[in-house]
């Protein structure tokens, strides 16, 4: 899962370079007439964005890509955790658009990056497992000197 997440992050970083898209929070700020309201998370999120926000790191959504990887791995290996995290992950997909962090296409691209990274690591794992079948076996061999009779 960690390797798949790293692959998804690196693909996302390439996306940030090739598609320097400014998020809707900045690009469409004049169109937002109603501020987003919330109790704890909205002010906290707004503070984090104000302190460390990035204007051009929007396409694809790396948060969605990693969440997609976690979603699939929990489905494969721990169903109880999947049912616990599933609604939170789906809420993250929706919340990134609702919170004006990403466009819908950024979320879709993030899901595709997550799926593609899972596909890549599955292929790599298959390749390495197939290669192990043809690996050399170690034989007991010694060059110890033995007295001749």
In short:
The chain has 149 residues and is mainly α. Helix content is 66%, strand content 0%.
Describe the structure.
This protein is an all-alpha fold. The chain has one domain. The chain contains six helices and no strands. α4 packs antiparallel against α5 and α4 (62-77) crosses α6. It is elongated, with a radius of gyration of 23 Å. The N and C termini lie far apart (60 Å). The mean pLDDT is 81.
Question: What would you call the shape?
Answer: elongated
Structural class: mainly alpha
**pLDDT averaged over residues:** 81
Largest sheet: none
Number of helices: 6
Helix content: 55-70%
Q: What is the count of β-strands?
A: 0
Separation, N- and C-terminal Cα atoms: 60 Å
Point out poorly predicted stretches: none
Strand content: under 5%
Name a few traits of the molecule.
149 residues, mainly alpha, 66% helix
Layout of helices and strands, plus pairs?
Blueprint: H1 2-18, H2 24-27, H3 41-52, H4 62-77, H5 79-98, H6 104-133
Helix pairs in contact: 1-4, 1-6, 4-5, 4-6
């Amino acid at each position: 899962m960690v390797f798949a997440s790293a692959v998804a992050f690196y693909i996302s970083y390439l996306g940030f370079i090739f598609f320097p898209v400014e998020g809707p929070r900045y690009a469409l700020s004049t169109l937002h007439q109603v501020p987003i309201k919330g109790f704890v998370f909205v002010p906290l999120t707004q503070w984090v964005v104000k302190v460390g926000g990035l204007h051009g790191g929007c396409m694809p959504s790396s948060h969605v890509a990693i969440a997609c990887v976690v979603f699939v791995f929990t489905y494969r290996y721990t169903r109880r955790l999947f049912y616990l995290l599933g609604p939170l992950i789906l809420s993250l997909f929706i919340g990134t658009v609702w919170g004006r962090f990403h466009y819908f296409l950024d979320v879709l691209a993030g899901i595709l990056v997550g799926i593609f990274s899972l596909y890549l690591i599955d292929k790599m794992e298959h390749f390495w497992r197939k290669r192990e079948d043809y690996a050399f076996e170690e034989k007991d061999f010694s060059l110890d000197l033995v007295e001749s009779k």
